[in-house]
């Protein structure tokens, strides 16, 4: 097997005959853009790029791949964080894109559901349902490229999980092609169905290792009528935790998001985005970005509730200062500060990112202690944490010492730092992957730190459903 | 193997030595009450009743059973509807009761969770969390005997699913003993955890065929402050559907339950319960039992909302008449009418009960058409439907002709009727088991009408995790 060429020329010919010009290519120039993950950490090889037009074509392709021993790497928007959609090095894999399968199959305003194909991009989904007066309650930074199939396969999170749950909570039904080429269809949106354990749940979050999701029935909500976005200054992460509890109690179901941002991250964003301005005049150790929504337009009740909630929090000393976005433009500006943290940190220099969770009520303690321990253990590095406090999920970044050489730092120190952070999280009863998945990035550390009993079950199920390792080999679990 | 005796006396001795007098018995008199399901439809045989004191004892017992080829039938409150907790006829099975494992392991008011052992009875769970000012948002008729382990293993439903989901939605973490005696522990309540596909989801609803649930971390809600219960009279099931949509739109998150009851069922209940009274003066073709709740005490806003919602419904012709329960006693009396339907129907004569679901927006059409088709096909039988319209789940009962002999009717006509009903439901894209599970009652019909692809996957997973068929053989799937 040499670079991006086929051992068995029959495979490419047969695949091409099956899928046509638009459906299959093994042209290295056309393959190249999809061989590297968007963060540029992994580059693999592939003997083809398949883009079937429909589920039946995909089912036939999967059977062909099975016969010829060619593995399949499903790739959605190629916006994953852990190399889960990037092929390995063998060259005996094809990349599978469902870009041509992006249709809305049905929309039901009464039951508030949409059934769409896996290739639909998240932003298109948002726009599609908005024209119908509805909304899809999950969003994230990569919404312009992330696809429904990828979101389901990775059980994606985002900034609305606090109120609405992860992708798992949005999926009412699935269609998927399994490793033997059979099509599992659970698209009928039954609210209650106890015919056996729930196979749809097994596919959600399986990162394309058990089946290829081809369509999903998703739940929708009424469109947002009123949105209130608050930027608050806090003296500590412990205050943030107390403020969160206060907001949950007072805001109830209106509380849609609660993100925390350390001063370091805000500074970095303000340096990075010249047009951006700090929402508050004074500097604070931490900031909270809080969103409350109502599906009634001009809901003055929500405004009153928010004002009362903040006044009480100020009285109780839970926050030092706060400002409410005056309009949608300002609300978007507040969110842009939050959404630009990763890019701003990246501009400063190399850093290791860790997407971790611990039980919500331990998160503040964890952040305080982990930052101290990591900075003591790795002098001259800076540790920062930001993100979804309300979900017990922060992005824990460790920045290289100023002036460090990226390549050598990433090759050595960074690996040691990550191992240390993951060990620490595991000691705290947490997860080394809160929302990004395992992909190829965390396979080794997962096998090392994961519960051996859980790993054993994962391997058994994988073996049962994909005995030949046809689907996304080497992702989530060791091949 | 003869009646309830052991082929291998070593097994009983070893099990007894392991679990002690309180933990193991093979005394036929002590076994007898647990050999028959509570509806009296199935009677099996067992070579022992095991009641381990803790998870470790159970893990050791499972390994022993594996070695000696003795199968394990987990039994919670023995209140299941499909014989899922009743042993088969081989006699080479033990009944496993977790009645001694009923402790609260931890309670966390801040994260609103409780971790309790599987043997805890649902009513005890309700009472336990009520003393802490919280509530557990799932209830059903068998709450006085149903256990947490049984509720998880069957993904139980009940009358609050409309707002809060089935048991699956309440479970944040699980502990379970697997077929090889290993203990899977996912009790750490992480809100977000994407380390592999979710094994907890696999165990929920697996009816004890993949593992024995020994403990669960469950989500709690603030206690109900105000409850409003409405009894409405309607002219048709189509009106009920329109009324449901209206209540969902107007009641929003306050809408906790929406049950429908046909006049026949109310008549039967009023005959059955001499002290009961009809909530409305006039007779209507259908009734809706509607519950709205708020966690604020004396929430006058909820009262106004309900009154406005009903007035508008009356204006729109969605209901003919309605009454709001004046106090808690009356609210309980309304619910008692609903909860007594099964008992009242049983007192009239033999009937076949079908726990079915179709997509919510098709349920009214289904009920109308199915009643007509079934009554035409089986003259002199009466078909009735009642239950959880808001979940697309009704209990579809077909009553034997007046004066029919129970034994001969159940042996012949009843089987034909059920097969017909299940065929019809399947044609409508529905489920032959909405909330009761498959157990032993529906194994054959599930294998016959179920999606062969889904069945194939279920069998593969079962084979992978329990290759020797140790756990609840012959339930959910053919042994």
TrEMBL record, chains A, B:
Highest rank taxon of the organism: Bacteria
Single GO term (MF): catalytic activity
SUPFAM superfamilies, per database record: FAD-binding/transporter-associated domain-like, FAD-linked oxidases, C-terminal domain
Parts forming coiled coils: none
Keywords associated with the record: FAD, Flavoprotein
Flavoprotein listed as a keyword: yes
InterPro entries registered for this protein in UniProt: FAD-bd_oxidored_4_C, FAD-bd_PCMH, FAD-bd_PCMH-like_sf, FAD-bd_PCMH_sub1, FAD-bd_PCMH_sub2, FAD-linked_Oxase-like_C, FAD-oxidored/transferase_4, Oxid_FAD_bind_N
GO biological process: respiratory electron transport chain
Location of the FAD-binding PCMH-type domain: 42-223
Record Pfam families: FAD-oxidase_C, FAD_binding_4
Family: Belongs to the FAD-binding oxidoreductase/transferase type 4 family.
The protein, known as: FAD-binding protein
Organism: Qipengyuania algicida
């Amino acid at each position: 097997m040499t670079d991006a060429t086929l051992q068995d020329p029959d495979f490419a010919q047969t695949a091409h005959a099956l899928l046509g010009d638009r459906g299959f290519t093994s042209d290295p120039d056309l393959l190249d853009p999809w061989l590297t993950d968007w963060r540029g950490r992994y580059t693999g090889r592939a003997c083809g790029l398949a883009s079937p037009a429909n589920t039946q074509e995909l089912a036939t392709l999967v059977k062909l791949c099975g016969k010829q021993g060619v593995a399949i790497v499903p790739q959605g928007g190629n916006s994953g964080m852990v190399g889960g959609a990037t092929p390995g090095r063998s060259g005996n894999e094809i990349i599978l894109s469902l870009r041509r399968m992006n249709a809305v199959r049905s929309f039901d305003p009464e039951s508030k559901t949409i059934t769409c194909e896996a290739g639909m991009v998240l932003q298109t989904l948002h726009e599609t349902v908005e024209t119908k007066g509805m909304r899809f309650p999950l969003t994230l930074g990569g919404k312009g490229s992330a696809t429904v199939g990828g979101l389901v396969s990775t059980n994606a999170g985002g900034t609305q999980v606090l109120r609405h749950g992860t992708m798992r909570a949005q999926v009412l039904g699935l269609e998927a092609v399994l490793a033997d080429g059979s099509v599992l269809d659970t698209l009928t949106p039954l609210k209650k169905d106890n015919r056996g354990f729930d196979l749809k749940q097994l596919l959600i979050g399986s990162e394309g290792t058990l089946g290829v999701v081809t369509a999903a029935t998703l739940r929708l909500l009424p469109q947002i009528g009123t949105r209130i976005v608050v930027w608050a200054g806090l003296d500590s992460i412990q205050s943030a935790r107390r403020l969160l509890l206060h907001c949950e109690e007072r805001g109830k179901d209106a509380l849609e998001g609660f993100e925390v941002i350390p001063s370091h991250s805000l500074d970095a964003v303000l340096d990075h985005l010249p047009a951006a301005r700090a929402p508050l005049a004074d500097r604070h150790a931490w900031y909270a970005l809080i969103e409350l929504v109502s599906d009634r337009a001009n809901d003055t009740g929500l405004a009153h509730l928010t004002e009362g909630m903040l006044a009480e929090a100020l009285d109780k000393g839970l926050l030092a200062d706060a400002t409410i976005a005056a309009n949608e433009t300002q609300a978007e500006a507040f969110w842009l500060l939050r959404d630009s943290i990763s890019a701003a940190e990246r501009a400063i220099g190399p850093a290791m990112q860790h997407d971790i969770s611990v039980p919500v009520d331990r998160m503040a303690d964890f952040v305080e202690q982990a930052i101290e321990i990591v900075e003591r253990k790795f002098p001259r590095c800076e540790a920062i944490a930001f993100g979804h406090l309300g979900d017990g999920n922060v992005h824990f970044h460790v920045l290289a010492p100023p002036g460090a050489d990226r390549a050598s730092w990433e090759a050595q120190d960074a690996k040691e730092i990550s191992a240390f952070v993951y060990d620490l999280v595991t000691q705290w009863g947490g997860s080394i992957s809160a929302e990004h998945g395992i992909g190829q990035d965390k396979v080794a550390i997962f096998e090392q730190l994961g519960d051996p009993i859980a790993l054993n079950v994962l391997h058994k199920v994988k073996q049962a459903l994909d005995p030949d390792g046809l689907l996304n080999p080497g992702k989530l679990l060791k091949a």
